[in-house]
Amino acid sequence: MKLLSLDETRRITDRVMSFTKADQCTVTLTGSRTGNIRFARNNVSTAGLVDNAQLSVSVAYGKRQGTAIINEFDDKSLEKVVRRAEDLARLAPENPEFMPAVAKQAYKPSATFSARTAAIDPDMRAQAAAYSIEASRKNKLVCAGFFTDRTSFETIANSNGVFGHQQATSLDFTCTVRTEDGRGSGWVKRSAGDFALFDPREASDVAIEKALRSVEAKALEPGRYTVILEPAATSDLIGYMLSGFDARQADEGRSFLSRKGGGNRLGEKLFDSQVNIWSDPWDKDVAVLPWDSATMLPRERMAMIKDGRVAALDYSLYWARKQGVRPVGSPGNMIMAGTSKSTAELIANTKKGVLVTRTWYIRLVDPQSVLLTGLTRDGTFYIENGKIKHPIKNFRFNESPVTMLNNIEEIGKPQIIAGDEVQYSMLIPPMKVRDFNFTSLSDAV
Fold it and tell me: What CA–CA distance (Å, rounded) separates 82 from 367?
């Protein structure tokens, strides 16, 4: 499928607007071309290319709203999807929290597109998989992984004159390497918008080294330890916490940012002073679309945590109007400030501690404190006198990222973490954290 150009999508959205007599109309048109290769047990198992495009039309009569979706773009089909949305709107009950479509907006383009990523072909995907497979066989290891690349576009428009169109690219690579007897396991994840930033050899070598070093894991007593969390180990934990920055949840007493007696904790110092987290759609490493697709509002560079203080909350259109706050597009990425230190340097500065490659199977225990439980996996190691001494068995942990971000000793160099596993595109550093709570052992590798 040919990805639609700005002119082509404008013609489609204009035609949709011409067919409706509703009070308002909003349109989202998206399309993507996604290539992939999957390998397991040192062999390629599947490879493919998926093309798709979709048009969503939402219309309203007063506070009654209807939405319909179609993937055909001739005039007859466009009129059909409009009529379907109108019929649904007439049947729908009034929405007491209905918000009218936003007025015409200006969007500052962001660097979401890379020609090198868009040019990835089956040979390039095969080469990425081949290195993992050949290097694993050479080391008598077994690997499995998934490499996917995506080129897409999104167009938004409404009957108030809003129009935005932009292309984007991304790639995501994960690889798990295990010893033939299953006693050692290593894992790696790499994400990027630009193929030039991705090195499959470097990524696979990391997973292979961890697999080789994780054999003969020893049991360490559960308890509170100084830990070095690699970026992939913290991305989900911090993602859970950032979901609590929703202003309505905080104001209604449903998040850790709710203040006793009512209101929220905006402006309060809840984290270590080293903690700075912000959103920036124009960041060169994790650029995202300059608009919030749900509201069509422009995104802005927004500090969420500044020097440990809660600096901003995320308001929906409805809640912003109710609270008298200027609405802004919801963030699409999250960036945490770091240093130039590598994970190896954090290890070298640690007298005793635990290195965690990855966390998984994470579940929310208590939303009021963001207490999470989960497991480590694919490479957990004991550190002594600045060196990795030996692999250790995996742990279950019970920990809150709020507490974790109050116990920071050192921060390293941020790394891109994106893909299906995380809520936002993230730039997250490795962190050395004291008193991380491991509650029990896990025999899984």
Answer: 41
